[in-house]
Automatic annotation (TrEMBL):
SUPFAM superfamilies noted in UniProt: P-loop containing nucleoside triphosphate hydrolases
UniProt xrefs under Pfam families: SMC_N
Organism in which the protein naturally occurs: Vagococcus zengguangii
Chain segments annotated as coiled-coil in the UniProt record: none
Lineage, broadest ranks: Bacteria, Bacillati, Bacillota, Bacilli, Lactobacillales
Similarity field: Belongs to the RecF family.
Function: The RecF protein is involved in DNA metabolism; it is required for DNA replication and normal SOS inducibility. RecF binds preferentially to single-stranded, linear DNA. It also seems to bind ATP.
Protein name per Swiss-Prot or TrEMBL: DNA replication and repair protein RecF
Location in the cell: Cytoplasm
């Protein structure tokens, strides 16, 4: 998979951008706050229709403009197609080959990306919601059905929580009957979400273990555990997950009526990382946390390739300076020659003697982008 062209109009601090890329390595070089990350973000937004930096879509639109427009030419599976996304006060529209897509699930997955930024270290030591979001974004790219079940779950969860808040302190039988209906709908969608997450984590662990052992010279074994908010049996099916989920909701009904919110489900689950059976979030050193984050990101590349028979595009947002020499070398060796990569950086000092591929360099300066021969 390759991103061959990118056009931006009124996006962030860019009035117009029209770029053609190398199929291997592209570097956005410039000082801080000049727009390097905005370029990487635009590729991410084109792929996933949302940003890794903000939930406010109005921030995409250049100050003083009424809309933003992003267009990419993508090469995938021996074919070329165009992706387009426009954002205005009326919302966002997505197009594939100039045809508007009514459902985001029909659009997401056409362009696959893996982003690694300094804040991704929070994937290891941050709040559970960051890890849930990570699973949702990555799994949603490769499985549109997951996006469908997740959307249904979130919709029913919102409705159920709203209903719990509206119930009397001692609801009558009719009110509880409707709560049962919402509970059954929640369990149906939620058990599918959890089942797909478990499969995803199992595959991700396989690739992450292999990568982590190489980086640690086979001294450390990385394992991943899906930490559900209710007990799940080994080898669980959608049906057995659903039964456990329903039993847990029934058991917690009094507490839910008191707290007026849904107590268990995939919206409360977590992902745990262990090195040699010790939890990385709590007991891992900073170096182990960084290696775990890098292993997970490189595992994503291999997992997506395994599922789609295409490597995704890799976005490295000022992350090289956060890694020591050994991790930098391992990262560059892993992607060399097989993954189209975009790097944002303020300097080439930590890269120039480690690159085996001549990169395409773009100098970014206050919302302008120009090719550079610097190396």
């Amino acid at each position: 998979m390759k991103l061959s062209k990118l056009q931006l109009e009124n996006y962030r601090n860019y009035q117009t951008v029209d770029l053609t890329f190398s199929p291997s390595l592209n570097i956005f070089l410039g000082e801080n706050a000049q727009g390097k990350t905005n370029l990487l973000e635009s590729i991410y937004v084109l792929a996933l229709t949302r940003s890794h930096r903000t939930n406010q879509e109005k921030e995409f639109i250049r100050f003083g403009s009424e809309f933003a427009r992003l267009v990419a030419e993508v090469e995938k599976n021996n074919s070329t197609f165009t992706l387009e996304m426009s954002i205005s006060s009326k919302g966002k529209k997505t197009k594939i080959n100039h045809l508007e897509q009514r459902k985001l699930s029909d659009y997401i997955g056409e362009l696959n990306v893996v982003l690694f930024a300094p804040e991704d270290l929070l994937l290891i030591k941050g709040a559970p919601q960051l890890r849930r979001r990570f699973i949702d974004m990555e799994l949603g790219q490769i499985n549109p059905l997951y996006l469908y079940h997740l959307t249904v779950y979130q919709k029913v969860l919102k409705q159920r929580n709203k209903y719990l808040k509206e119930l009397d302190s001692q609801p009558n039988e009719a009110a509880l009957t409707f709560l049962d209906v919402l509970t059954d709908q929640l369990v149906e969608a939620g058990s599918q979400v959890i089942f797909m997450r478990l499969s995803f984590i199992e595959k991700l662990e396989k690739w992450a273990q292999e990568t982590h052992q190489k980086i640690s010279n086979h001294k450390e074994l990385l394992t991943l555990t899906y930490d559900a908010s209710f007990e799940i049996d080994s080898g669980a099916t959608v049906q057995t997950i659903g039964q456990r989920f329903k039993n847990s909701l029934d058991k917690n009904r009094k507490r839910e009526l008191f707290n007026r919110s849904t107590s268990v489900g995939p919206h409360r689950d977590d992902l745990l990382f262990f090195i040699n059976d010790k939890e990385v979030q709590t007991f891992g050193s900073q170096g182990q946390q960084r290696t775990t984050a890098l292993s997970i990101k490189l595992a994503e590349l291999e997992l997506i390739h395994e599922e789609l028979n295409e490597y995704p595009i890799l976005l490295l947002d000022d992350v090289m300076s956060e890694l020591d020499d050994d991790r930098q070398i391992h990262l560059l060796e892993t992607i060399d020659g097989k993954v189209q990569t975009f790097i944002s950086t303020t300097t080439l000092k930590h890269l120039s003697n480690k690159l085996t591929t001549d990169p395409e360099i773009f100098k970014v300066d206050n919302g302008t982008v120009a090719r550079s021969e610097l190396i």
